[in-house]
Structures are given as C-alpha cells and as structure tokens.
Amino acid sequence: QSSVPSLMSEPDSILLVPAGDHYTMMDFATAYFREGQSMQGLKGMSAEKKSAADLVRHTKVPIQESLLQYSDSELNELATKNFKTLMRLMGDQPKLKNQNDVECIYEILQLCKEKESLHDEVYCQVIKQVTHNPNQESVLRGWLLLNLLTGYFIPSNVLMPYATKFLQLASSDPSSTHQDIAKICQSNLRKNFMYGGRRHLPFPVEIQAFLKGCGARRLVVQMPVGVEYLTRIKTFTVAKELLQEICEQMGASEQEEIEEFVLFAIRIHSDNGNKMVRPIRSEEYLHDYLLEDNLVTVTLRRVTWSTPLHFEKKIYMDVHYGQLLWDYLNGRILLNCSEEMEMQVGILAILQHWAKTEQQNGAPSREELKEYTPKTLQSSLNPQALQNHVGLVLRTRQPLQPVDAKIQFIEHMMKLPFFGYNMYLVERLSDDTVAVPCFFGVNKEEIIVVDGTTQAVSCVIPLKELQKMRTMRPLSDGGLPGIELNYGSAASPKTMWLELSRAKEMYHTIVVILATTELHH
C-alpha cells in the first residue's frame, strides 16, 4: 500500500462523536498533514495555532502537494489534480473548455472509487475549502460534494472521529447557512458505516438534479393489487427505510413482520423483452437499482409468512389477496393433487368472482371462469365439469361481500400443502431420480423438491445445511441459467445443480431469506 501506514493501521472506530475540544480538523492537520508535521517545531503557541488553523482554511491558490503525506508520487499528483477540479467545481478557478459541474463531480467521485487510499485526502480537501470560505455559493457547492462523498465513501478509521466531529460542529452551528446539509452528511456517514455506501456512481441526470437542490426523486412502487404506491426517495435511501414506510401505511408495524416483505427490482431488457427479477436486500441503496432509462420497476412481495395475518386495514388485505391471487393464477401455488381439483378451482373461482364489487349477483360466464383458473390448469380441466361445480356452489352458498370473499380466498390458500414456499419451476436437474419439470420451494427453513405431477416431496435441504451456492450461466445459446447448491455436513458434502429461467431471482431470494434469518440468531 502506498498510503501512510499510520493512517491506515489504526483499530476500528465506531461512529461516536468525540466529546470536548479534541478531534478538531486542526488537530488532525497538525498530526497528519505534511505541512503540519513540518510545523511542529515552530516556536510560540499563538504562531503555531495560527499556522495550524491555516492548514484547514479555504485557499484561493491550488495546492502544490497533497495535504497528506504519500510515498507514491502518482497519488501525490492525483491529489493536486483533484484539488484543481474541486476549485473549478466550487467556482474558485475557471473551468476547462467545455467542462461543466457534473463532469467535475463525476471526476472526483470516480477518483475516490478507483483509489481508496485517496478518500482521506479528498475529504480533507473539501473540508478545507468550505472552512472560512467568504463566497457562500462556493461553500454550498463544497457541501453538496461532501453530501455525495459521505454517502459513497467512508474516511479511514483515523480520520473518522475528526470528520464526524467536524460535521457535528457544522450541524449545530446556529450562525451557519449549511446546518441542514451537515445533518444530512452525518446521516449519510452513519448509513455508510452500517451498510457500506452506494455501489454505483450516480448518472449525470441525478447529479444535475442534485446540484439544483433536488435530492429526492419520485418512485412508484407497484403493489400486488395493481395499486401504485407513490413516494419520494433520497439519494441514499436504503430499501429498509422504504419497506418501513410502506408497511406502516399497511398497518404492519412490528419489525418481525416488516422483515417478511421484500422489494423487488424488475427490469425488462429493451432488446429481447426478457424480464430480470431481483430482490433488493434491506440494506441496499435503492438508487443502485434505478437505472437512468426508467426500465426498472420496483414491486413489493411478501416472501416469508411466519407472523400471523391481520386484516384491520383494507390495503393490507388487498396486498395479500393480490399477491396470492397472482401467484395462484400463474401456477406458483400448487393445489391439492386429487380428484377434487375441479371443486377446489370452482370454489376459488367463485371467491374471485365475489371479490369483485360489481359481480355480487349472477354466475360467472365461461370466459370469466377461464380468467379465474390458473394458466397451468386450463388445458387439463374440463370446462363443463368446472361450470357444474360452480353452479353447485352458487346454489348452496350465500354470496359474500368482497372483503369476506378475499379473506376466505386467503384462508383457502393458507390451508394448501405448500403455502409459504416461494415456488420455482425447474427444467433440468443433476439428480436423475427426480422427473422434470419439477418444482423447487423455498421458505424460511428449507428448500424442497416437489414432483410436478404427484406433488411428492423427493428432497429436503434445510437452509442451515446450505454451505455454498452460485449462479451458473447458460451452457449454450438459448439455454437456461442455473444454480449450484453445496449442502450437507463436512463429513458428507452433497452438490446439486438445477436449470431454470428464474435462477437469479431464486438465488437472491435465498440470500435475502438467509440474511433475515441470521439477524435473529
């Protein structure tokens, strides 16, 4: 490593703001700036103090050497070049020909992404340039950059207490015009410390909005009922915050239940129309999924079902009904495999019919019955037999109000043998004793392999026995992606691979479930 060892080898610090007058940026500059170290032999306290204060004070002239000592000349050169870019962004130096603010910001962020050892240097440069800077517009630009830096890159363990102290002082200074932005920087740094910062640099359009003071963007979350949940997310909003907000609106306020819901990012590829579905882990930043081209949709799903359902709020009931209905109609909920299949489908068709407010009386038409039947069963069920079952139910039961019909539909689903499993249709499998296509089900405890015809469970893998898994690319053009599972004990390791169109979705869903389960152990 080419950075100063003393700056990089300190013990881990936690995000606590130091008390008292210690840990000021002046203290840091005296101890770690190259000029501070050479100044320590100065005679006279006041002269020393004045010079130390100058080290972290705005300058109108570009620095000739990096503020921190680097043994690597390339890092020194990159640091001085970055200071000029910073001055151009802040309006302290004229921009290069055809250069704009967005390019200046991007250049600085890109440097931090590529050179981790320069994080402290860039932080110190920005803090220096916003301190005692007489130009308010220049100060604001410096703070906007600091807002981005704190959300993306974390200072070293050595600089951290000084940086947090600087932000704390700035956010509590009543004479300051940037109190609010300093508070945002504090929050960004805290999140960064907990969640690791955003992975992808912002798109130019996001930086432009940011420079205009629009730190939030409108986001539409598609709920399972066809309802759109409108919200505004900030530059560094993590999935956990949005989940909390949506769940509170639905009346699910217990942390244990909130953790059962997951946001999914769905991207339709413009060239081939393929759909990529990926669950977003609770600690991931939403903006890392929202691409510039607006081709990403965010949806909400319940992934595990440990906490009891409660129907005090209509939206809560509608969301659960909508998700289970969609899964049922798309073949992701397996019905009891028996002679009474038509009867089950008939009852569920009637409940769907009654769930529609405008369909209180009268029997569903043959066309409507088809709509109420899972796509996977439409070819195997006898339409006439189904209509006869529906007629029988209508003659023997009183119509239900939509709310009651939805609750009964949900209750019917909950009695099914594989309720609570996320089901995936698998086309190929390394275990040749299992007929394919078959289903893989994933819940909080286990992965099961279910026969596609008889619904017999041929294999159970407890999640706690899962040692390792990885996704696999398709073996050929037009082939399916796959997952390799390594499970069992060290004494008896086992491997299984499977091919399915939803390989990435299944892989990341297991990751999300495992992460939530680990939180409670």
Automatic annotation (TrEMBL):
Name this protein carries in UniProt: Unconventional myosin-XV
InterPro entries the UniProt entry points to: Band_41_domain, FERM_2, FERM_central, FERM_domain, MyTH4_dom, MyTH4_dom_sf, Unconventional_Myosin_ATPase
UniProt lineage: Eukaryota, Metazoa, Chordata, Craniata, Vertebrata
Domain FERM: 217-521
The organism of origin for this protein: Eurypyga helias
GO cellular component: cytoplasm; cytoskeleton
Ranges for domain MyTH4: 58-211
Residue intervals passing through the bilayer: none
One of the record's GO molecular function terms: actin binding
Predominant location category: cytoplasm
Keywords assigned by UniProt, alphabetized: Actin-binding, Cytoplasm, Repeat
Domain of life (superkingdom): Eukaryota
Entry similarity comment: Belongs to the TRAFAC class myosin-kinesin ATPase superfamily. Myosin family.
Protein location: Cytoplasm
Pfam families: FERM_M (PF00373), MyTH4 (PF00784)
